[in-house]
Amino acid sequence: MDTAVFSAASLFHTDDDSDDDARRDQAQVAADGESQEQALEYEERLHKFPGLDLSIREFSCHQLNANLLWPGTFFFAAWLAKNPSVLEGQRILELGRYEQLSCAQCSTKYAVYLPPIKKKIVCIALSIYKMYASLLNGTGALAIFLRKTYGVDITTSDYDDKDIEENIAHNCRVNNLDLLPHIRHTWGDPFPVLRPDWNIVIASDILLYVKQYPNLIKTLSFLLKESDLNGQRAGCTNITTKSGEQVVMRYPMFLMSWRRRIGKDQSIFFEGCEKAGLEVQHLGDLVYLINKKN
Fold first, then answer.
1. What is the per-residue pLDDT for 45?
2. Is the pTM of this model over 0.85?
3. DSSP per position, 75-126
4. Which of 19, 32, 199, 203 could be bridged to 90 by S-S, CB 3.0 to 4.6 A?
């Protein structure tokens, strides 16, 4: 995957730096970064889902980071609770939110060229940046709700990070649930499962970063177009929208909740889906259905 990397080295020269100084500075930057990582904390709170309370541990680095579980998760859970026939007997993949930490690729490598105070700032900024990305994902809350409420066969998937995987496992344990299968996947990278066989892929509040839309579409295209179900009678289900319209939903499908007004940026995503051979349908209540075009 192509990644835009900021190079601090292009801004500073090191004519007066010796190799020993550089090695010493790099070790200090690594230590600073590690101390910042250790300072990252969790916050465990009780969240109300339809008919169920779940204890969810979320990444937290500041007391002002309220509502770390995004509202779309709860609205989507409510929509699914109103349309349980969509889930019956289906294998489900929850696609986690993702923000590529491309700037972290230049952290300790180039920070050695900065003055001491700026090195400290770089380390702190990168730690906060990684934490901010973690705030947007890494709980598995929706999957846990669906498993406990409906007993569905569900797999979680999120950014390729061991802390996120462990946090999802923790949330399973504290809610008296066996660990859910988990797949580490970075949007746009080759998917670890060569022949996906999930009937439904679900996600909420994932249209945050326009620059990642092409990677998200690439992942969705693979999951929907390369599904083993395409060569079988995968079936369908019907729902009635709030407006009274009958909608036929074909498997495999991607169901997404986006609890914001669709603006120009989000339209780019839907247009990209259409160009990639996917079709998009608004089901009402800000829930969207995406399928492979017939």
1. 87
2. no
3. HHHHHHHH-GGGTTT-EEEEE------GGGGGHHHHHTTS-HHHHHHHHHHH
4. 199
Is the bond preceding residue 214 a cis peptide, omega within 30 degrees?
no
What are the pLDDT digits (tens) for 116-140?
Answer: 666 666 666 655 544 444 444 578 9
- Cα(129)–Cα(30) distance, integer angstroms: 16
CA atoms of 39 and 58, how far apart (whole Å): 15
Write out the DSSP string of 180-215: PPEEE--TTSPPS-SS---SEEEEES-TT-GGGHHH
Identify each DSSP E strand in the chain by its residue range.
41-49, 52-60, 91-95, 153-158, 182-184, 200-204, 236-240, 246-250, 253-257, 278-282, 287-292
Q: Assess contact for 201 and 93: CB atoms under 8 A.
A: yes
Contact between 250 and 217 (Cβ < 8 Å): no
Q: Do the bridges between strand 287-292 and strand 182-184 make them parallel or antiparallel, or are there none, so unpaired?
A: unpaired
CB 199 within 8 A of CB 232: no
By CB atoms closer than 10 A (0-12, 13-18, 19+), residue 120 is middle
